[in-house]
Amino acid sequence: MKALVLLSGGQDSTTCLFWAAQKYGMENIAAIGFNYGQRHDIELDYAAKICQGRQIPFKVVALQNFDPSSALTNKNLEVDTATPANAPPNTLVEGRNLLFLTYAAIHAKSIGAKVIVTGVCETDFSNYPDCRDIFIKSCNVTLNLAMDYPLVIETPLMWLTKAQAWQLAESLGVLDIIKTETLTCYNGIPGQGCQTCPACQLRQKGYDNYVRDKKDI
Amino acid sequence: MKALVLLSGGQDSTTCLFWAAQKYGMENIAAIGFNYGQRHDIELDYAAKICQGRQIPFKVVALQNFDPSSALTNKNLEVDTATPANAPPNTLVEGRNLLFLTYAAIHAKSIGAKVIVTGVCETDFSNYPDCRDIFIKSCNVTLNLAMDYPLVIETPLMWLTKAQAWQLAESLGVLDIIKTETLTCYNGIPGQGCQTCPACQLRQKGYDNYVRDKKDI
Predict the structure, then answer these.
(1) HSE toward the beta carbon, residue A126, CA cutoff 13 A
(2) Up-side HSE of residue B35: CA atoms within 13 Å toward CB?
(3) CA dist list (Å): A133 to A17, A96, B86, B155
(4) Is residue B130 within 8 Å of residue B119, measured between CB atoms?
(5) Over the stretch B115-157, which tens digit does the pLDDT of each residue have?
């Protein structure tokens, strides 16, 4: 096994899965997902379906004790509909990507994978500190030191806009799969989703821009 | 709250708890422990007792899915009685300290603590990669970036021998507490322990050296 992909079942991570499959070969990739009490945990069913059809090993790690102050893991809180100025939205889950990457690194070492692929992106989500490139670089060094194991974290979406992420899906030949078989919506509706939550709005806006950019060419 | 101490109930972390109490004041420290399926999980009872008597808040985080290849978390494996040359003993739990520090950092931020104290030590355990000073330094930066929060990790035992750790307990006025009210033994026996497992042998050797060094002065 060469590469382990962090797979949530959403647009970004599923695009990364196919990116890794093209780079390393479908038979050389594995996936890992996390059940951390997220309100849209049905996303993991979509991740599992994508993997099942392609014989990609998919491990789901159950995590307890996640941030009760986040609207993503506390269903009693309302999800922010707009991003506050100079602060992360209330869907931030403190430490989430570091925990995910640590569990992924532990699993990667156990299956002999030297590459971890994650769909974090600095372009559209700059208020999430653990989506920043500088965090990923530091985390890469920390993981190598923690386990004395030379992993490389790859982030194909880091500098892409959402429109460019759709373009990437198209160039990988999986546009329809990403459009219909992934789930990004905080309310758990696949494909185009509820069209009202912030995740759906961002996804739709990116898609509209992608379609517009195509016409411009 | 000023400092959060990683507390396992063993000699090292309990000494760190009193070190932090002296530095920051007993009323300004909190503790965090982890139940990760360790064979000697009774150590957490000793940690809780130490905290209860001193009104130190103590949070225990339950973690699942820990390394099944480690003799510390898989009770079907025998604990190595000697450290292999150039390799960690089979009590290594991959990624453990990074996970512990990440959960600690999340908790520290939620209670407003800016300092994390951990008893990791490079001197006696050089084959555990996640006890090295270079890992801790890298981890400190990664935690700061992951959460956009200026934590400082303090490691009072990093360069001490086990004999010097006993000396530190004496200078803090807690030698008897550390001797009798902590649990280091992999077989779950407090104080002097079973005297045969590697953890007990290391603890006893350190104590013998401490007593010998005292006589030399």
Answers:
(1) 6
(2) 14
(3) 19, 15, 34, 28
(4) no
(5) 999 999 998 655 789 999 999 999 999 999 999 999 999 999 9
pLDDT attached to residue B193? 94
CA distance B163 to B63: 32
Q: Are strands A152-154 and A115-117 parallel, antiparallel or unpaired?
A: parallel
- Among partner residues A106, A141, A142, which is closest to B94 by beta-carbon distance? A106
Q: Which pLDDT band, with edges at 50, 70 and 90, does A32 fall under?
A: very high
Query: What's the CA gap between A89 and A72, in Å, rounded?
Result: 10
pLDDT digits (tens, 9 = 90+) for B61-108: 988 766 666 666 666 767 666 666 666 777 677 889 999 999 999 999
Dihedral of alpha carbons B94, A143, B155, A130, sign: negative
Where do we find the tokens 């008897």? B176
- Give the global pTM: 0.89
Write out residues 56-85 of A within 8 Å (CB-CB) of B.
61-65, 67, 69
Secondary structure of residue A58 in the 3-state scheme:
strand
- The C-alpha atoms of residue B109 and residue B97 are separated, in whole angstroms, by 18
Report the SS3 class of residue B51: helix
Bridge partners, B3 (sequence order): B29, B115
ipTM above 0.90, yes or no: no
Do the Cβ atoms of A142 and B145 come within 8 Å? no
Q: Which two tokens stand for residue A206?
A: 């990116």
